[in-house]
Amino acid sequence: MSTAAESAPEPRAPKPALVFDDPLDQQSSDDTDRGWGERADGDSAADLRRFLDEKPPHHL
Predict the structure, then answer these.
(1) Taking the mean position of all CA atoms in its chain, how far away is CA 43?
(2) Which of 12, 26, 49, 55 has the fewest other C-beta atoms within 10 Å?
(3) Angstrom distance (rounded) from CA 4 to CA 10
């Protein structure tokens, strides 16, 4: 025989509230991510070397 305490449902976590703020007012991950090819080291000699290596032939 089961008792009332055993058959009582477990308490559920509250549902998240709906937010009706303007999503364009918030900062997105695109605003904070580093861009394509950005490097944190800031080595200008390496940047110059890469630029000269990747320069198209019509820019000689």
Answers:
(1) 26
(2) 12
(3) 12
Determine the Cα–Cα distance for residues 40 and 54; give it in Å rounded to an integer: 20
Give the model confidence (pLDDT) of 28-60 as tens digits: 777 666 666 666 666 788 888 888 888 877 766
Q: Which residues, at least 6 apart from 40, have a Cβ–Cβ distance to it below 8 Å? A: 34
Q: Which of 36, 56, 52 is nearest to 44 (CA)?
A: 52
The pLDDT tens digits of the residues spanning 4-34 come to 556 677 888 888 888 888 888 887 777 666 6
Which alpha helices (H) appear in the chain, and where do they start and end?
Answer: 4-7, 29-32, 44-54
Which amino acid, residue 29?
S
